[in-house]
Design goal:
single chain, 394 residues, 34% helix, 21 strands, alpha/beta, binds MU-OXO-diiron
Length: 394
């Protein structure tokens, strides 16, 4: 763990989960993660967010190290168990403590963690609470993962406790963000996996947060930002409508036909100056695919026909694409079949509205001269469409 006094009597407690490999049994964690809590000693003692239930003992150790004898308020910015999981033990250990959340959060805490109603204080949007020499302002930021999410501002210290928002799944020995390429990629991947589905909501929250005078943004995953501009500027880019002159190509190939087509298509795009990110779905880390979707202008799915439909791995990628709701503008399919089936309709029916579907290329068996010609045409179409877009760096 890392314990740091950020400002006088304001402590950051970072508990690393170095070996966690999956989040929500879904999201791969190549760099583990952390659960961050923050403790403010004032007339009232406040703990902001807690830890995953598996790390409750470490959270108690951290509180012991900074000499916490009593807690008045536990602020639950977000009810998901990786931040609320230690609340049941904490309210037992500190019988005078109350949990601060909003109406929706109270519902989640009661149903998921069996927190008694009489231990909860419900606050309204923008409500302020004096804790002595400091104030806490609770700003509702719904869908910065779940619908109940709050960010908490301490105006006197110019700190925003943002919970999931601005987080990164990055366990490290650094308390403050190094703001290097590694962190940037980790925060971007986290954005893709957790925040991108709620892009419109996050854009609205960002506009509010940008107006706050902030020295520190303190998320509850990954390092803390003492240079808030780094992560605010990154979010502005990721949330903007601009895309890269780049094509993400998740594909799967059973007997080499789709692989041959993808390979040819990739080389065509490279020759024409388009960036490409191919992902073999049998081996790829799905988080890497999500990361590439943050700003790829186009998605091309590669799949063979299996049992009269797309390969299940391609369906999974289509579903991930649909639920992550990236700002991708164009989509198409490269495929092959042996004797028949309906993979194009199954895929296009799953796609979100508002995308332009470019003419797919599907070969019967191994690709032949006409299929390669069609792939060249598809590459030309991609180039043409990208020319019409606001391209990052273009
Ligand atoms: Fe880090 Fe949505 O929990």
């Amino acid at each position: 763990m890392i314990i740091k006094e950020i400002k006088k009597d304001v402590y950051g407690l970072i508990i690393q989960d170095w070996s966690r490999t999956l989040f929500d049994e879904l999201i791969p964690l190549p760099d583990g993660t952390t659960y961050n809590s923050f403790f403010i000693k004032d007339k009232k003692n406040v703990l902001i967010d807690t830890a995953d239930p598996t790390k409750t003992e470490e959270l108690f150790e951290a509180l012991g190290e900074i000499g916490v004898e009593d807690i008045d308020y536990i602020v639950s910015n977000h009810s998901e168990q990786d931040h609320s999981g230690s609340i049941p033990s904490l309210i037992q250990a500190f019988p005078n403590s109350k949990v601060i959340t909003n109406e929706k959060g109270a519902g989640f805490l009661k149903s998921m963690l069996l927190i008694p109603e009489d231990r909860i204080i419900k606050i309204e949007d923008s409500e302020e609470l004096s804790i002595g020499s400091r104030t806490l302002k609770f700003i509702f930021a719904p869908w910065s993962h779940w619908p109940e999410t709050i960010v908490t501002l301490c105006p006197e210290e110019k700190i925003l406790f943002s919970c999931d928002l601005f987080g990164s799944h990055l366990a490290s020995s650094e308390f403050y963000a190094l703001c290097d390429e590694k962190l940037y990629t980790s925060a971007k991947r986290y954005y893709a996996e957790i925040m991108m589905p709620f892009r419109n909501n996050i854009s609205r929250h960002l506009k509010v947060i940008e107006t706050l005078p902030l020295d520190i943004i303190a998320p509850s995953h990954g390092p803390v930002y003492n240079n808030p501009a780094f992560i605010l500027d990154a979010y502005k880019d990721w949330l903007s409508d601009e895309v890269k002159n780049q094509v993400a190509i998740p594909y799967v190939s059973m007997h080499g036909s789709v692989a041959k087509m993808v390979d040819f298509f990739v080389n065509q795009l490279i020759k024409k100056g388009v960036g490409v990110k191919p992902f073999n779905l049998t081996t790829t880390d799905i988080g890497e695919l999500a990361l590439s979707l943050v700003d790829s202008a186009t998605l091309i799915l590669g799949t063979p026909m299996v049992l009269a439909g797309p390969h299940p791995a391609a369906l999974y990628a289509t579903y991930i694409f649909k639920v992550l709701r990236p700002k991708t503008k164009f989509v198409s399919v490269i495929g092959s079949f042996g004797w028949g089936g309906n993979m194009l309709k199954i895929i296009t029916d799953m796609l979100p509205q508002g995308l332009e579907v470019l003419e797919p290329v599907v070969s019967k068996g191994y690709p032949k001269e006409q299929d390669f010609e069609n792939l060249k045409n598809l590459a030309d179409m991609v180039v043409e469409r990208h020319k019409q877009l606001k391209i990052i760096g273009g």
